Amino acid sequence: MTADPTRFILVEPSHPGNVGAAARAMKVMGFVDLVLVAPRYADVLTHPDAHAMASGATDVLAAARIVSTLVDALDGVSYACATAMTPRDFGPATHAPRALLPSLATSTHRIAFVFGSERYGLSNDDVYRCHACLSIPTAPGYGSLNLAQAVQLIAYEWRQALGGFAVEPRTAAPTWADGPALQGLLDHWQRVLVELDYLDPAAPKKLMPRLLQLAHRVGLTTDELNILRGIARAIEKRTATSPPGSGTSDPRY
Question: Across all residues in the chain, what is the average pLDDT?
């Protein structure tokens, strides 16, 4: 593993599955330093539920540490961010993650994000030990987040503040159908629609121009155009064996 400048601290986590899911949330954002403070289960890092929910991030669990107090977990940390849905009357100021994290990303601090237990969150004393408090903006009236979900959101926002990961481009750009190819498709479909008695060649109205506008709006690739030509050929084969006049015309066109 590469050196990880960020620490994620879970205070008194109750469910091994949440610990495993939190490890997974960290790893997909490139973070590996996980510390647990007085977890409910002493064997949480090897618990089957934790390994099942880690889903490939068992290396993060294997490297995680268990300590008895938040003070121990903050060893080496110079800036700690508590996470709490309800702002305290006293203590560090509360910020939305996206408002605070970009400024921390340019600092030289060693950052820690501190998460409370599933049932009670963080105690006031634990919040007071932190430099800032983060509150994830949620819908009014319901701000309940699963522990691992909260870890994922904070890990994502922090990774974005640090510059994010590049999104791999498509291996090959699509080949768009050109004008002659579109015209060939329309001519083909016109023949098929006449055979189906859907289009009256004596009174075509605006059916074909509308189909052309549809093709322009959709933006057909050559592969998609070939599929539509193939469908037209299949219809031609079927209509060649059907009695004449078995189609249905649409008077709107």
Answer: 90
- pTM for this model (two decimals): 0.73
d(CA 189, CA 179): 15
Distance in angstroms (rounded) separating the CA atoms of residues 69 and 199: 79
Record the tokens describing residue 46, joined without a space. 């090897």
pLDDT tens digits along 172-199: 778 999 999 999 999 999 999 999 989 9
Is 6-161 assigned to CATH 3.40.50.620?
no
Give the largest Cα separation in the chain, rounded: 87
Q: Which fold has domain 179-240?
A: Helicase, Ruva Protein; domain 3 (1.10.8)
d(Cα 121, Cα 240) in Å, to the nearest integer?
A: 72
- Taking the C-alpha atoms of residue 27 and residue 33, their distance in angstroms, rounded to an integer, is 9
DSSP annotation string for 102-116: HHHHTS-PPEEEEE-
